[in-house]
Design brief:
The structure is a homodimer of 391-residue chains. With 391 residues, chain A is of the alpha/beta class. Chain A has two domains: 244 residues, Type I PLP-dependent aspartate aminotransferase-like (Major domain) (Aspartate Aminotransferase, domain 2, 3-Layer(aba) Sandwich), CATH 3.40.640.10; 120 residues, Aspartate Aminotransferase, domain 1 (Alpha-Beta Complex). The first copy, chain A, contains 13 helices and 14 strands. Chain A is globular, with a radius of gyration of 21 Å.
Chain lengths: 391, 391
């Protein structure tokens, strides 16, 4: 057993839906000394992280902190705390992640009203309105802001209005949006939003930033049953992340350092500049992919800049293309999930991965590989199309 | 917001119940490049981590991997997967962590039979037997191997025999034992055991190693209801950590690197040498604490070597002592939990923190501080007592 090999993973450029590339300053933060989780030096970092997350979520919500798990843990924490047995939930399902939230809510005891749209289409506010009318006392409406399986950019405000009109809270999955496109929790009246660290924030995976409105906290305090989850129970965790520092579990110290440094980088760049960078590189890569004849699956007008999901060319082995990108070029892109398996590529330019050099590398490599497999492409057209966007 | 200060935590020696000191090789592992979680290079690390964990847990269990959360997430994963609504569980409660497990099991729908012992005493097998006789079809018995709140080292084998005799599975909390004292999953017929990364393994907190016997897996497959937790559902996670690599969530890549390197260090040292090191340094620090007049709370014959829990001297401000240790000496020890708050100190020598220089530093610093506060101590006696152990 002592001969387990030395750790030596390849140096990839990460252009899938996450993790994204890590900034060297985030790497450096992870070798800061580990202190105890109740150490005053760690308490200071916790306070700063909460502040920085509030700025990124654009919220004044006091209860804003990272859940000690990955993005899906954020989803589970949101749902486990809001839902009691028998509560009604309206959940938009137009991809893997809405479906996952519906499954999670049912496990926690919710009666779920699924509002479906075809993959690649947004959830229509009118359909949410119809579903809400069928409920008696809906507890929450949940939608996914950026569907990682399809590249759909979901509008939020109209659905938020409908939810509140019916007395429901709005839960927003911002796993693939936070740090890439505007997430305006207070303006949009979102009650709970959760995200991850390894996409728009460009830290390694391991934490799930989350924020709760006062209405959500009041609803949690008014629960009649204990939350099914001990690990994610906000009524205890809020005392640990609050100034009381009541021991609940041991926070992942080093990941918190990484998140802190990632957030500092985000805020140093500034949100408008960061969103513009994502818009620009996203537009460039999309123009390049179009020039290669690769068609997006998301409906026009609702495409995420940070995640292009395109149909794979007919007649080629799409997995072989990804393998070649990975092993010959050290470039990672992702395949499709669920019904999109084998049908699409998911190409992300999230956080630190949203840089012009990566756009150029990916378009060049992809052109070379698919050309070598017999796909008819006009050589150089992809990069030229991207250049036009930057011009 | 852009003026959040540069990260600069103090360099502490961690002598509480965890986190423990981190080896420089583990630090270095954390700056290895982050690759995608489905990358072949990460898949290779996953396979190695499983192998190394099996060696540490002393098990052949195929399903042995780290849960993507801290030690308490391991507890929740164990309980959420075994318990269905109405199942009976017998849980030993002689400190915070048994109580936490009982709470968790009730939230997941169990009818819990608490078997209590006073804090500082072991759970008596005879009491488990009595409780089991009151059950109809007990699903599981859960005990804590190393009670972090009291320093009790719980014997396992007799309780395991009783559990299986009644058709129940045995769940063992090894959060504070794994890597410090022998944990023999197969020999003891343990069905599920969970632990953490930041104690005996000396990596940062963030993952929860766990192992499931075939019987536990069969019970999970035979469930009639879905597990309340989506995030911890083993029926999905086993396909992600299995060779199928079916996407469930994104594993915490960097923490997995840290765990990998921590495990390599554990296995390079070898389990017998590691346990002997913990025994020796634990005996030395306990001898020193006794020479300072500090009495252990755990019953004789059942004291953990890696965690001394001692009564604080009468008439002094114990929190002031800890503060002085931390701020003047950069030494961390912990206070008491629950009813032991203000009553005890918890002094750990776990993993990399179990070194003679730290024993010397702590005994010296503690002697100086309590002497300065008017506690009558024979100067030099603590270190001399420790030296005798090493002689």
């Amino acid at each position: 057993m002592a001969n387990a090999p030395e750790l030596n993973p390849a140096q990839r450029t990460l252009l899938g839906p996450g993790p994204s590339n890590i900034h060297p300053r985030v790497m450096r933060a992870m070798i800061a000394p580990v202190v105890g989780h109740l150490d005053p030096d760690f308490a200071a970092v916790m306070e700063e992280v909460k502040q920085l997350l509030r700025a990124l979520f654009q919220t004044a919500n006091d209860l804003t902190f990272p859940v000690s798990g990955t993005g899906s843990a954020g989803m589970e924490a949101a749902i486990a705390n809001l839902i009691e047995e028998g509560d009604e939930a309206v959940i938009g399902v137009n991809g893997v992640f809405g479906g996952r939230a519906a499954d999670c809510a049912e496990r926690m005891g919710a009666r779920v009203h699924r509002v479906e749209s075809p993959w690649g289409r947004i959830i229509e506010p009118a359909d949410i309105a119809t579903a809400l009318k069928k409920t008696k006392r809906p507890k929450m409406v949940l939608i996914v802001h950026a569907e990682t399986s399809t590249g759909i950019w979901q509008p939020v405000e109209e659905i938020s209005r409908l939810a509140h009109e019916h007395g429901a809270m709005l839960v927003l999955d911002t796993v693939t949006s936070l740090g890439c496109i505007p997430v305006e929790i207070d303006k949009w009246r979102v009650d709970v939003a959760y995200s991850c660290t390894q996409k728009g924030i460009s830290a390694p995976p391991g934490l799930a930033p989350i924020t709760f409105s006062q209405a959500a906290r009041d609803a949690i305090r008014a629960r009649k049953q204990k939350c099914h989850s001990w690990y994610f129970d906000i009524s205890m965790i809020e005392q640990y992340w609050g100034r009381e520092r009541v021991y609940h579990h041991t926070a992942p110290i080093t990941m918190t350092y990484a998140l802190y440094e990632g957030l500092r980088l985000v805020l140093e760049e500034g949100l408008p500049a960061r969103f513009e960078r994502h818009r620009l590189n996203g537009a460039a890569i999309s123009a390049g992919l179009a020039a290669l004849g690769l068609e997006p699956v998301a409906q026009e007008g609702h495409r995420l800049p940070q995640l292009a999901v395109v149909k794979t060319p007919a007649g080629i082995d799409e997995a072989a293309v990804r393998r070649e990108l990975l092993l010959k070029y050290n470039l990672e892109i992702a395949g499709g999930l669920g019904p999109f398996r084998g049908q699409v590529w998911r190409i992300g330019t999230l956080g630190e991965s949203s840089r012009r050099q990566h756009v150029a590398a990916l378009l060049g490599a992809l052109e070379s590989i698919i050309a070598s497999m017999g796909v008819e492409v006009r050589r150089g057209a992809a990069l030229a199309a991207a250049d036009k966007v930057y011009a």
